[in-house]
TrEMBL record, chains A, B:
It catalyses: L-glutamate 5-semialdehyde + phosphate + NADP(+) = L-glutamyl 5-phosphate + NADPH + H(+). Catalyzes the NADPH-dependent reduction of L-glutamate 5-phosphate into L-glutamate 5-semialdehyde and phosphate. The product spontaneously undergoes cyclization to form 1-pyrroline-5-carboxylate. Its EC number is 1.2.1.41. This is Gamma-glutamyl phosphate reductase. Keywords: Amino-acid biosynthesis, Cytoplasm, NADP, Oxidoreductase, Proline biosynthesis.
Amino acid sequence: MNDLTQTPEMLIAMMGAKARRAAAEMALASSAQKGEALVAAARALRDATAKIILANRIDMERGAANGLSSAMLDRLRLDEKRVAAVADAVEQVASLEDPVGKLIDETVRPNGLKLSRVRVPLGVIGIIYESRPNVTADAAALGLGSGNAVILRGGSEAVESNRAIHAAMVKGITEAGLPADAVQFVPTTDRAVVGAMLRAVGLIDIIVPRGGKSLVARVQEEARVPVLAHLDGICHTYVHAAADPQMARDIVVNAKMRRTGICGAMETLLIDRAFPEREALVTALLDARCEVRGDEAVRKLDPRVEPAEDGDWDTEYLDSILSARVVDGLDEALAHIASHGSHHTDAIVTNDESVAEQFLARCDSAIVMWNASTQFADGGEFGLGAEIGISTGRMHARGPVALEGLTTYKWVVRGSGQTRV
Amino acid sequence: MNDLTQTPEMLIAMMGAKARRAAAEMALASSAQKGEALVAAARALRDATAKIILANRIDMERGAANGLSSAMLDRLRLDEKRVAAVADAVEQVASLEDPVGKLIDETVRPNGLKLSRVRVPLGVIGIIYESRPNVTADAAALGLGSGNAVILRGGSEAVESNRAIHAAMVKGITEAGLPADAVQFVPTTDRAVVGAMLRAVGLIDIIVPRGGKSLVARVQEEARVPVLAHLDGICHTYVHAAADPQMARDIVVNAKMRRTGICGAMETLLIDRAFPEREALVTALLDARCEVRGDEAVRKLDPRVEPAEDGDWDTEYLDSILSARVVDGLDEALAHIASHGSHHTDAIVTNDESVAEQFLARCDSAIVMWNASTQFADGGEFGLGAEIGISTGRMHARGPVALEGLTTYKWVVRGSGQTRV
């Protein structure tokens, strides 16, 4: 790794080969051993708090000198409380159920062959992420907890913080007798390494991008390795004619305003023309300091509503802005979501169970909700303990992806000398 | 479709849009309706037997004129018996369990949210295949049975046969009240259409190539849409020291010689140096008219053994040829498989259960077997009824892929007005 003449491809080939060997060991590690490693890693992180904060200070100073925005600097910043939270999150993964070795199903064939499908780790996971240094620990912990090897490629702004966190994770892993190469950190900030990772078919089994839209878009565009991600979270809430007005207001204001910057935040409100309290709904949002961009029918409800333009229906604001339109019934609501949604999370508010069940069946999104805020679209809220990301793809894993999503299965066949006729 | 100025991209965009609409309808079809459609399609195939054979005759004559090999002509040929078998296979899919709507798991969160994961169809499946016209019916039936829409792109050699089979399938589907566009056949043999399908992200959800290695390699190389396939089936059998000699001979001869042209056929035999009846094992293969290419140790067992060259260990012969080497124990056998295998199917023969379980855990293949012939690697033999293909990838579905592998899941969240804190 000290050879500066090394190409990005050579670097990734070398790291990938090490990761593959480590993955083979990790696949055989017991749940207890993986748990031990996670607890040891959390301890090592706590022990290294001062070192990590010192490393982070270098990143912060360089970031400030390079003119990073205050929002970016805040994302980058680590203090004692944040390091403690990072360590707690790692330790928490140890308490999750280990998916590896789980029997999916089994059957005995008429010829006596015993077949079973057993969960096994995916193999080698590549994580490409931006400024938040906690991803180094989070992603490593989830990879470790599911018996995989991970290759971490963090943003250049956080390189010192990431290195310090990585060193602590590795200390914990090796203390528990697991291979150091199970968690590797790309030692260079050369951007060409990202391209090499994206093309590393056979070396890396899956790529998880964590960061802004431009990162995810580049990864989805260039990757030859399968990608687990979502590009957009254009989430809808459809307030049906038979919605409880108070519930509708509470859900809609929460779905939009609780945290506007998360992918599960509602971006478009669809109001049924037959819903009697349309006006109060829009007023509640405006009163909560949400900018509402509406179609003509919505604009009639409150003079503060701005006119929506065509692009608004396809925009993920991640801000206190909402697009809103009036629709004529369930079919029009579903058609709007099918045209403009991003297959992330969409919700209906109604007291009519049969309409709700139709919505849940017909809305083709990773997460469909009835009478709940789209802000619940989160691995933690779903009881998965943590998530590596939310997938809007249809293959492999959909919605919040946690430990199970980082596994695959193998077919195990036990015979007694059977030959095929 | 009659507009000859249409580009391949426009054609696939149009077919994809129709398929998407049909897929939305198919996703809501009941099991009974899908079953009815399959039974009706089988009936329509039987009723159209004469037409199909006539169409096939045109393909056969053109094929003969174009100098197709007798093996290829045989693959292409349809007679009454073969059409009946095609219809039976379609009907059989109706008897399989419908995976759509199946509950994977459910949980109630402390805040009262009810979460469930429910199986839903993948969406639109693109099938790219070569000369066997039965794939038209098989793939359509599996797509239909799992609630998907399919776009079929068959080889030019079989175009008339495929058209006739497709017409019968559509007749059955519409008789059952399902949309004709659920099974579409690409109406041109322009090869550029394959490229357009491979790049149709968002229009086609998954591509399944069915055919020879060069087709699969092209698809895997060019596709931007996820691909479900295997390139090679370099399957190993490791005969351990504690193998029953007679069982080892029976399994090994069957794994290699029962049908040499299938992907589950054994291509490499690994014989433990401590297995006493090494010689009889190799002799049995040679006596079964198998060419054996061995390392030095194997060559000493029988003078008829040819010397293996380096490339032999990475060759899928699909013929009565076998590479064979002597290994020193389980670790060396596993290391050989890790270096040269294709993650398809690998087997151990032994009476030592603890060694067998180590092999099953450590061998990183889609299918791992103990005391059975690798020729069992097949959806039908696994009780899946039929298979769309065998996947050696790690994502989504692994090994034989049948109805369940053509589905994904959605998260369904039922609340009573919950908002997130």
